[in-house]
Amino acid sequence: METLEQIKSRIEAAVPGARLEVIPNDSPAKQASLLVDPTCALDVARFLRDDPQLQLDYASNVTGVDWLDTAVKEKVKVKKVVDGAEKEVEETVEKKRPGYLEAVYHLYSIALKHGPVVLRQRTENRTDKTHLASLTPVYRGAEFQEREAYDLYGLIFDGHPDLRRILMWDGFKDFPMRKDYVEPDDYEYEPTPHDDVLEKATRHYAPEVKI
Amino acid sequence: MSATTESPPSRNYEILPKADFNGALDGDVLEVSMGPQHPSTHGVFRMDVVLDGETVLKLKPVFGYLHRNHEQIAERTSYLASMPYTDRLDYFCSLTNNWAYALTVEKLAGLQPPERAEYIRIITAELTRLQNHTCLAGFLLMDMGALGTPLMYAFREREKILDLFESLTGARMMCNYMRFGGCRVDLPEGWLEQAKKVVESYPGFLDEFENLLSSNEIVMARTQGVGRLSKDLAINASITGPMLRACGVNYDIRKVDKYGIYDRFDFRVPLGDHGDCYDRYMIRILEMRESLKILNQALKDIPAGPIMDPKAKLRAFKPKPGEVYGRIEAPKGELGFYLISDGSASPYRYRVRPPSLINLTILEDMCLGQSVADVVVILGSVDIVLGEVDR
Amino acid sequence: MLGTGIIKGMAETARNFLGSYTSEERLPTVQYPEEKLPAKENARSFPFLVYDRNDPELGLRCVACLICEKECPPQCIYIVKDTTKKPDHTGKLQAHPKTFDIDISVCMSCQICAEVCPFDAIKMDIEYAFSTGDRFEGLLLHKEQLAKPNDHYQKIHPTEAAEADARLAEEKAKAEAKAKAAAAAEKPAEMAVPGSVR
Question: Exposure of B323 by Cβ count < 10 A (0-12 exposed, 13-18 middle, 19+ buried)?
């Protein structure tokens, strides 16, 4: 199979207006991924499925990921006056990276038996702009998995035929898999509480085991 | 507090849409919930079925009754502590779940299990496949009305395999046996001889089973032509496992990815012609025979040696940051794990790709136009386990 | 002829039914609780603490290092360290637990606590009949209920216990040899001090 850079250049040639970026992966697994803009995601997916060299006709895994607001440390060369002379000094600058939600797709090919090609779609922020393009019209197998990403993360897929909760019950509020999810305070007695369970326990009754 | 998003799009799905069904305007259209408590739904699984008489007009599966939030627990605990929880995903096949997770983490951290460990992994995985398909054949026949007898014969054979697991790992079903870099303990004395005895007696049992059922007219009438699935729809709907091969698609991850040391073994991949329930049942019987071939070869050739990678750490295991997707051919389909590590002791994102959930995507397409009794047979042939569907 | 398949199946069932009177293999049931299947050596049900020398207080191998509490996946172990110290099998002073509770209604018998313990102190038992009327207190096992002698461990898991005993005996022998070497090194120093006439 071709490398990700080659695939990226062919997609840019075939799908006009596509905006892509390769995200590297430094672990021993070496599965780099392709970031796709939600406006062109459906066309890119159709190209990947129908292209005779790739024929990625099987969407193996569709999942959501939650990235919180973090600060990223970067080393920047800054001109500073040190001991009377102007020098270039390396300083670590903390940049705020805003949080976002992400949908990751792993595509394989059953016809040509190669893969995987990893696609990612990112939202702009975690609060109100959480719409992404649904790839269900191209890959039917993404139907239940995109529903699960909506149910657990709050990613809204435009173009999905039937977007509703799949694992939680229909009246459930909130999105359980997000990193800032707070559980409801419905505590039951537990004989051996630890860590955060212990904090919850002490709010409801005095600790059992006396030291 | 958690973030709020705008309200979701309104449902474009109603259980009973008005005046949508031709010919049913003057008849009775009945909505039945084949509810979570049902002897034939293989767990707490619900189907909202709209019926015209006995014909299925619409079918929507509803699940989530067994959702235990396994993924969030794994993001809170260490990598090793998730291993016993993976046993409980597809609770019939705990050893293959363990292998899928161990394989994914080994890919992420760059560990390499030694040869004896790979042989033990293949032996236990094929034994798991044997007992899972045996169970499935028994349950499918029980769903069709052969109330207990084939199931009891199947379980009688399955007990022998579970005895092998107990003497190796300590538990019959929740084995918790694979570790990152190898296996937990070595084979005890006399285990190989016992395993060889079980594997030698199995073809006799399969012949008995086929004698009992595969040419039985009732079984043939109830499964042939029922629940047909076309090749293109199966590939597009991400179906994997025996269901995909029953449609005639030659895709077995053991042959495609060649994980473990499967490329050293000589076995074939059975394919079906029609994609109906009878094909899926026969594919599983044939797969059992192929597993026996692999087991015979593996039990003969297993070398001596260490069973753990010397670089592997048991406690305080912190793989480098990165992400990986690893998959194996579990008895039910493609079981995959997607892990994102940020360098700490617990994964940042842990995702299980459940074959049973994704194989349910086309349950409705297969059941349209069939009768209610066929729905039970079709669901039985999909082979779901709710622990995996809901996690 | 229509029906031959069914007749073949009936013949199979008849063979199993009549065969269950003659052959052991076709009658796999065991009349529990009058008969019980023999326990396998590696079987596991719930953890227990091992003590040596038939002394549940001083012979307890556990040194309250809290590793099993940290590694337990459902966090069902609760340990409180005692303020005093007691000598272990090599004679070194170690801490020991004042409270050691395991909640077996939460325990999932995964054996990780036994695997990570560096002192061979917590091992897996094979007893499974724990049903009780009290849902909370009856299923919370304390140190006194968990502590069992080394003879029990040798009876249920002979090979593992033999390995553990060999390892502990080796450590004890090494500690004794070091102590003897240290004592021998002190003696010449004593004699070489002048002026200390007795």
Answer: buried
Q: Are B337 and B104 in contact (CB under 8 A)?
A: yes
Lowest model confidence (mean pLDDT) among A190-204, B164-178, B360-374, C58-72: A190-204
User: Which residue(s) pair with C123 in the sheet?
Assistant: C48
Q: Which residues of A touch C102 (CB under 8 A)?
A: 192
DSSP-assigned states of every residue in A148-195: HHHHHH--EEET-SS---SSS-TT--S-TTSTT----------SS--H
Q: What percent of chain B has pLDDT over 70?
A: 93
Q: What gap in Å lies between CA B383 and CA B351, rounded to an integer?
A: 21
Q: Do C42 and B188 touch (CB under 8 A)?
A: yes
Q: Is residue C31 helix, strand or coil?
A: coil
Average pLDDT over residues B158-172: 90
Q: Is the dihedral of CA B16, B21, B27, B31 positive or negative?
A: negative
> How would DSSP label each residue in C116-183?
H-TTS-EEE--------S-SSSTTEE-HHHHEEEHHHHHHH-HHHHHHHHHHHHHHHHHHHHHHHHHH
With CB atoms and an 8 Å threshold, state whether A61 touches B351.
yes
The span from the CA of B129 to the CA of B118, in Å, is 16
Q: Is residue B163 less than 8 Å (CB to CB) from chain C? A: yes
- In whole angstroms, what separates CA C178 from the centre of its chain? 30
Per-residue HEC secondary structure of B275-324 comes to CCHHHHHHHHHHHHHHHHHHHHHHHHHCCCCCCECCCCCCCCCCCCCEEE
Q: Best of C76, C78, C136 to disrupt the A interface by mutation (most A CBs within 10 Å)?
A: C78
Task: Report the C-alpha gap between B217 and C143 in whole angstroms.
Answer: 62
Q: How far apart are CA A135 and CA A157, in angstroms?
A: 8
> What are the phi and psi torsion angles at C81 (to 5°)?
-75, 145
Mean pLDDT of chain A, nearest integer: 80
Closest by alpha carbon to B120, among B98, B144, B89, B137? B98
Residue C94, Cβ neighbours under 10 Å: how many? Answer: 16
- Please answer whether residues B143 and B40 qualify as being in contact, where contact means their C-beta atoms are separated by less than 8 angstroms: yes
Cβ-based neighbours of C175, under 8 Å, separated by 6 or more: C90, C91, C92
Bridge partners for A95 per DSSP:
A72
> Which chain B residues are closer than 8 Å to C71 by Cβ?
78, 80-81, 315
Chain A interface mutation, best of B339, B348, B358, B362, highest count of A Cβ atoms under 10 Å: B358
Output the tens digit of pLDDT for each of chain C's 198 residues. 677 888 888 888 888 888 888 887 777 888 888 888 888 888 888 999 988 888 888 888 888 889 988 899 988 898 988 888 877 777 788 888 888 989 888 899 988 999 899 888 899 988 888 888 887 788 888 888 888 888 888 888 888 888 888 888 888 888 888 888 888 887 765 555 555 554
Cα–Cα distance between B265 and B254 in angstroms, integer? 10
Residues 6+ apart with CB under 8 A from A171: none
Would you list the DSSP string of A131-149? EEE--TTT-TTHHHHHHHH
3-class secondary-structure state, position A119? strand
